[in-house]
C-alpha cells in the first residue's frame, strides 16, 4: 500500500512537472514567428487592399455628371449609386469580416479582391444604368470588407506595444484616398473618359491581387496560431508555399477550422453589447459622420462661393488628406509611446511573446491624449461652417481643413487601435460592426445635411456638428475611468 501510494505520489509529481514544462514551452513561444520585415510587408499588403475601399468612393464623385450624360439618366439617379455604395459598405464587412475570423484572412481577402476586380471591369464596360447600379453594389462589397480584414491581420501579427504604429500606417493609406481620389477622378474624366476610372482601379487592384495570391500567407491565429502551423486546407496557403514547399503537411496540433457561420452580421452586432465596444464605436461613428459631412459639402460649397472649376475644387480636399496622413503616422507612434509609458508606471515589463492585457489599464493608455484633439476637431468643424458663411479667404478654409482632417484621423487611429486591443480574437468582426454603425450614422448625417444648410445656414449647421463632436469627450472619459472595472465584472479582463 505504501509503495503504491509512493508510486501515485511520484506519478502526480511527474505529471505536474510535465505540465509545467509544457506551460514553459507555451510561454516561450513568440506571439508571432513573422519577422519584422515580414510584418511590415503584411502590413503594407493589407493597407493597399484597404485603400481601394475609400478611393473607390471618392474617385467616383467628379465623374457623376459625365456618367449621367453618357448613360442618359439624371444626376439624381447616379447619386443613388453613391447611396447604394455606402449602404453595402456598411453591410458587407459584417459578413466577410466574421468569415475572416472563422475561416482565415487569406481566402476571404482573395475572394473579395476577385469580386472587386470583376466589378471594376464590368463598370468600365457597362452601357446601362441598371448594370451600373448592381456593379457598384458588388464593387462596394468587394472593397469595403478589406479594412475589417486588415484589422484582423494587424491583430494576428502585432502585440499591443507596437499596435498603434500598425493601425497608423493602415489609416495613413486609407485617408490618402479622400484627397487623392477626387483629383485622379477629375483628371481622368476630363482628359480621357469616366470609364478610365474603373480601368485604372481594375489594373491596380488586379496587379495587387496577383501578388496576394502568390505570396500572402495565412495569419489567422485560429488557423495557424502564431504562424508556425501549416493550414489544413490549401486555400489558406500561398501559391508560393504550395509550389516551393509542397512537402509541408498540416500539424496534428493545429486547431480545426470552423465552418461558415451564416449569422455573421448578427454576431457582428453582438459586439455592441459590450459597453466599451459600444462607446468606442459610437465615438468613431460620430467623428466619421462629421468627416463625411465635411467631405460631402466641400466641393459644392467652394464651387458656389469661390467660383472654382471641378478640378480646382478637387484640390481643396488635399489639406485634409495631408493632415490626416501626418496624423495617422504620428498618432500611431504616440499610442505606442503611451502604452510603454503606462506599462512602466504599472511596473509591467515588455513581453514580445504575449499580447495579453491582463491587469493592464489599456483604456487609460490609449486615451491619454485624445481629449484635446476632440476639442480641436470641434473647433475646426465649427470654424469650417463660419468660414464658408463669411466667405473668408480660401487660405483660411484650407488651414481649417488641415486641422479638421488631422484631428479626425487622430480619433480614428485611437478608436481602431483600442477596438483591436479589446477584441484580439475577433478583430475583423468588431471592425465590421464599427463599419456598419459609422456608415449608418454618416449616411443619416449626409442625408440631413442639405436640409440643415438650407434651413439654418451653413455656419449654424456645422456649429451643431461641432457640438456633436464635443460629446465624445464625456463618453471617452467614462470609458477611461470605468472601462477596466467593467471588464473585471464581466470576467473579460485580459481577453
UniProtKB/TrEMBL annotation:
<dbReference type="InterPro" id="IPR011701">
    <property type="entry name" value="MFS"/>
</dbReference>
<keyword id="KW-1133">Transmembrane helix</keyword>
<dbReference type="InterPro" id="IPR036259">
    <property type="entry name" value="MFS_trans_sf"/>
</dbReference>
<feature type="transmembrane region" description="Helical">
    <location>
        <begin position="196"/>
        <end position="216"/>
    </location>
</feature>
<feature type="transmembrane region" description="Helical">
    <location>
        <begin position="310"/>
        <end position="330"/>
    </location>
</feature>
<feature type="transmembrane region" description="Helical">
    <location>
        <begin position="166"/>
        <end position="189"/>
    </location>
</feature>
<feature type="transmembrane region" description="Helical">
    <location>
        <begin position="133"/>
        <end position="154"/>
    </location>
</feature>
<feature type="domain" description="Major facilitator superfamily (MFS) profile">
    <location>
        <begin position="42"/>
        <end position="484"/>
    </location>
</feature>
<protein>
    <recommendedName>
        <fullName>Major facilitator superfamily (MFS) profile domain-containing protein</fullName>
    </recommendedName>
</protein>
<dbReference type="InterPro" id="IPR020846">
    <property type="entry name" value="MFS_dom"/>
</dbReference>
<keyword id="KW-0813">Transport</keyword>
<feature type="transmembrane region" description="Helical">
    <location>
        <begin position="396"/>
        <end position="419"/>
    </location>
</feature>
<dbReference type="GO" id="GO:0005886">
    <property type="term" value="C:plasma membrane"/>
</dbReference>
<keyword id="KW-0325">Glycoprotein</keyword>
<keyword id="KW-0812">Transmembrane</keyword>
<feature type="transmembrane region" description="Helical">
    <location>
        <begin position="278"/>
        <end position="298"/>
    </location>
</feature>
<keyword id="KW-0472">Membrane</keyword>
<feature type="transmembrane region" description="Helical">
    <location>
        <begin position="370"/>
        <end position="389"/>
    </location>
</feature>
<feature type="transmembrane region" description="Helical">
    <location>
        <begin position="41"/>
        <end position="61"/>
    </location>
</feature>
<feature type="transmembrane region" description="Helical">
    <location>
        <begin position="457"/>
        <end position="479"/>
    </location>
</feature>
<dbReference type="GO" id="GO:0140115">
    <property type="term" value="P:export across plasma membrane"/>
</dbReference>
<comment type="function">
    <text>MFS-type transporter; part of the gene cluster that mediates the biosynthesis of squalestatin S1 (SQS1, also known as zaragozic acid A), a heavily oxidized fungal polyketide that offers potent cholesterol lowering activity by targeting squalene synthase (SS).</text>
</comment>
<dbReference type="GO" id="GO:0015137">
    <property type="term" value="F:citrate transmembrane transporter activity"/>
</dbReference>
<feature type="transmembrane region" description="Helical">
    <location>
        <begin position="108"/>
        <end position="126"/>
    </location>
</feature>
<dbReference type="Pfam" id="PF07690">
    <property type="entry name" value="MFS_1"/>
</dbReference>
